[in-house]
Specification:
Number of helices: 3
Number of strands: 0
Strand content: under 5%
Largest sheet: none
Distance between the termini: 51 Å
Helix content: 40-55%
Shape: elongated
């Protein structure tokens, strides 16, 4: 039996998603937790943060 590929579904970033990511990043929450809250992958979250110039570093 041949394996079927899972179709990639991309969702647009809404203003609410960006706002939530920025507020969580300010409180030094990790990328994994932010991604889980937004129901996105950590990679997609990190890429969008880099595009917007938002630091996702957890250092104080």
């Amino acid at each position: 039996m041949a394996k079927t590929k899972k179709k990639i579904v991309r969702r647009e970033w809404t203003k609410a998603d960006v706002r939530q990511m920025k507020t969580m990043a300010k409180t030094k929450v990790g990328v994994g937790k932010i991604a889980k809250a937004l129901k996105r992958t950590p990679g997609a979250t990190a890429v969008m943060a880099a595009k917007l110039g938002v630091s996702l570093s957890t250092r104080i």
